[in-house]
From TrEMBL:
Gene3D superfamilies: Periplasmic binding protein-like II. GO terms for molecular function: molybdate ion binding. It comes from Sinomonas puerhi. InterPro entries: ModA/WtpA. One of its GO terms (biological process) is molybdate ion transport. This is Substrate-binding domain-containing protein. SUPFAM superfamilies: Periplasmic binding protein-like II. Pfam families: SBP_bac_11.
Length: 234
């Protein structure tokens, strides 16, 4: 069974599929790429069984008939966090703190940063929209560095290509060379719900539905937590 996902969920999906196999379900080979590229490949009709993307992207695919209508299933909630480069090779951790006291603190940090890294995925789109809404788009334009598809912002931070980075918390936790300041405060939080759906091109839709149901079950909750995700209903 074949699946495709965005990069943001690749680690948690690896553990979820291992747990599914241990529960007697079919083996799933998951290819993780940039979310935009993943959606394009699904829309082009590539032979896949399952698709894991942000729920809004899955719904667009469902509307186009590229995933099975009614199969879109919210799985996990991801918060956007902020990080800076670190000389430490120790895996980055998060203590539950907010990166800034409020949105004003975030705006000040953005204005002070020389190079701001963000992703091509939903978190990056939401960040740019928020910056534009604050009227800072033109001021920060030349300093905004969008990661190449499939390249984590954490790598850009560790390589010294950016000074301030924004990405899903799950993509930053455990990475060397970065220090996580925290998640965005409530008045400017960027949360993304990721989900799964059965591809219209699936050769085994019944088996795909079974795997998807397991990923959405209570058995998945400890695995989500271990990767800094919350259940989608949180």
């Amino acid at each position: 069974m074949r699946a495709i996902s965005s990069m943001a969920t690749r680690h948690v999906l690896a553990d979820l599929k291992a747990a599914a196999v241990a529960a007697g379900l079919p083996e799933v080979e998951v290819e993780s790429v940039g979310g935009v590229d993943a959606a394009k490949r699904v829309a082009e009709g590539e032979q896949l069984d399952l698709v894991f993307l942000a729920v809004d992207a899955l719904q667009r695919l469902a509307d186009g008939g590229h995933v099975v209508a009614g199969s879109v299933t919210p799985l996990m909630l991801s918060q956007v966090a902020v990080a800076v480069p670190s000389e430490s090779d120790e895996p980055a951790t998060h203590d539950g703190a907010y990166a800034f006291p409020d949105a004003a603190g975030l705006r000040a940090a953005l204005q002070q940063a020389a190079r701001i890294g963000y992703s091509t995925g939903p978190s990056g789109v939401a960040l740019v929209k928020m910056i534009d809404g604050w009227g800072l788009g033109e001021e920060l334009g030349q300093r905004m560095v969008r990661a190449r598809p499939g390249i984590p912002v954490a790598r850009s931070l560790a390589d010294g290509d950016v000074d301030l980075g924004f990405q899903q918390l799950s993509e930053l936790v455990g990475q060397p060379g970065v220090r996580i300041l925290g998640v965005l405060p409530p008045d400017c939080a960027i949360d993304t719900v990721f989900g799964g759906a059965v591809a219209a091109a699936s050769g085994d839709p019944a088996g795909a539905f079974e795997v998807l149901r397991f990923f959405a079950s209570e058995a998945a909750a400890p695995i989500l937590a271990a990767h800094s995700f919350a259940p989608a209903g949180s």
